[in-house]
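User: Good morning. I'm curious how iron/sulfur cluster would be positioned relative to this chain. Could you predict the structure with it bound?
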Amino acid sequence: MDLTIKEILERDAFTKENIISLLETQGEERTFLFKEAAEIKEKYIGNKVWFRGLIEFSNICSKDCLYCGIRKGNKNLVRYNLSDEEIIAAARFAFTNRYGSIALQSGELESSSVTGRIENLLYKIKELSDGKLGVTLSVGEQEPEVYKRWFDAGAHRYLLRVESTNQSLYNKIHPNDSKHDFNRRLSCLKSLQDIGYQTGTGVMIGLPFQTMDDLAGDLLFMKSFNIDMCGMGPYIEHADTPLIEYSENLMPLKDRFDLTLKMIAIIRIMMRDINIVAATALQAIDPIGREKR
Ligand code: SF4
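Assistant: Good morning! Here's the predicted structure, ligand included:
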């Protein structure tokens, strides 16, 4: 029996079919979905937005994800890497201006010198803020020992987006080699959680080959993994990437934007008190895109 949207929203847990129905809502039903999500946010989080100081300290990356503008194979951009002094100055600015936390983000590099550099930066940030400035890391897949060292040095949140939890879609948007291994991504998420990080993940919405079934599966994955943070954004094609070849069949940008808002509304209903990132990719489509979430 087909349930109405109201009946689905009254359920304690959603099936994949329920989520697909919610993703397909239009008109009054869509408004009802957003209203429900807004009420839950008001009740469990309050009318608050937390500012994080995002420090994108380097765009150098050893990987070649097929959708990403800063992939290693893209020669059409200027690479940069902030100095330690610049990163510390940005952290000090955030602390002085009463940001509760910062996020350190970069392309993915794995080496003992990168491990040591980030560890050292974390200790310095702890020292300058007397341990009061929270630090989120988003620097990709690493060995569990590395995650542990950074945790001990003061990072307590980690964002590692899985981008798609359907392995066959994941394989379509990444090179087929050991450096881009779906199972390693999952085991990294598990390590982060085991070490004690507040762990975040998320997906891209509107990818080539992606179906509503995939997106519903992504939400169920995040729920079953019991994530603490979620960062989701629309897929925005980049001219200097291999995936540009599949742009013809993409849904219009405004529909990807709308679908992203629905994904955010549904995860808010499924996981009432988690932190949800207001992704900059939303702002790239709509000048007040982040506020609409
Ligand atoms: S690891 Fe991240 S930064 Fe590097 S290519 Fe993939 S998506 Fe881009």
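The first strand starts at residue 52 and ends at 58. The chain has a mean pLDDT of 94.
Let me know if you'd like a different ligand tried.
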